[in-house]
Specification:
Blueprint lengths: L5 E2 L2 E2 H34 L4 H11 L3 H19 L6 H4 L1
Antiparallel strand pairs: 1-2
Amino acid sequence: MADTIDTVGIAGDRIRSIIERIEKVEEEIKDLMEAKKEIFMEAKSEGLDVKILKEILKLRKLDQDERDEHETLLEVYLRAMDAPTPVPIAQAA
């Protein structure tokens, strides 16, 4: 008798293989996330601002055009927040 059970054309060994590979990748991701956390803790212990490091990482993922657009929009929004609110015409009269 075969080691695999074919249920409606699906081989059990193939499913098991895929699940085990996914589980292995998930474990590797968990290990990498722990390593990343340790690097941030090291940076913090050296007096570096972790929020700023994360912002740098985020910006480095963008290409130059996306980065320029991000910086421009940030500047426009900040200026808009600082601008005085116009008085509605009905109140001005």
